[in-house]
Amino acid sequence: MEGNLEQLVAALNIYPISTDVLQQITMLLQSKTDEALSSFISQEYQSLFTLEHKIWQLLSEDSSRWLNDSHYSEFFQTLGSFNKSLIFNQNHITNEIKVSLIMPDTIDQIINIFKQVEQSIDDNDPLITLASLWFNNLSFFIHEYPQLGHSSIMIQMNQYIADHFILTEKFKFYLNQLRQSPVSPLIFTSRQLFYMKTCSLSLSTYFYSNPSSFDYTPDQILQNIGNEYLQIIQIHSYTAELWSTELLTCITHLIAFMRSFLWWNGEQGTKFKILLSTEKILHEYIHALIRIITYEAHSRFIMSQWINDETILMDSTLLFLINIIQTHNISWFFHSMNQLSDTLLEIAESSAYYQICLCAYGILSEILTDEHLKALKFPDNIRYFFFKMLEEAWHNPSKKYHQIPITYFLRGNFIK
Hints:
By secondary structure, the protein is mainly alpha-helical. It has helices spanning 5-10, 19-30, 34-60, 70-88, 95-102, 107-119, 126-144, 152-166, 169-178, 190-208, 218-236, 245-263, 270-275, 279-294, 296-299, 309-327, 340-350, 354-367, 370-375, 378-395, 406-411, and strands spanning 400-401, 404-405.
């Protein structure tokens, strides 16, 4: 049976599941590099399809009897990493294949996992860790393919997240913990990170997909978390160099969720004005975001895909700033920030992620005077960058650069 994925997957139906089978599948998946992923999926598609949907089934059942076994844990971590590579792999794996492998069969499977998370009395339950891994991957998938956010499963899933996790006293409790400075490392449990990262990330990418409706109004969301959110960003923006990995994660996904939610549905910034209700609050928030992007250590970890916290943080923070500029008559406010243009130019020229470059250049074009723009070399840089993206979109069979249609470039409308 060794190395035969079809037989190994078939053996998962025999209870109790053999740890030897799990180890063999684990080693097989670990051996597949990004370069080999496309051919492996092509050759083993049916077995992988069976495996992926078997795992959704296992996670949705009572998992307490096996989750503490290290062989299970390593297997799930390996499959989760494999799926993340699959999501971000651009080498000849069709969207249809990715959807069939990544998406669960029914909303019931998702709800059953959520209920296990809610009912668990252990804040560091291994199930919560694995649930986070699976739902984080779903969120990354929706961000890469926003049209999937309109599926009935994703609509129901995110409504459940809002009902049972975001608009709860538990979420507010975790926000209040994050308002402390310094933050105790003891607060970062699997459950806390599920609420702060996994749930925020899911709603962030859901709103990024621009759903047609949502059951809660901006007032309802912001009344529950708006003030706490602003205080967290304000407090911790002064000490970015002291952020732990977990605090970075929480702040990243709170900013991403809030930005995506406030910009959702193209209401020209009306929701921004609910959160940033006075000129003083607006100015303080802008300063806080600028302090965050100015911390250089974050920039060193920016990747070419929306795949890690530093990339998501920089992308979301810059998007927040450019959305504020687009919806408030406030370009003048940035003129006195002498070092900001240098910071943005450095980010634009060094970032590996295309949308961060676009946002940095976009902010510069909004806040600099014509005289300053003429004195800088960045118009030549952005011209090269624009035509590079346009060329890649032209040669792509889908006529897109990532998820940006070629027509958006021709209209000059490519910052979401």
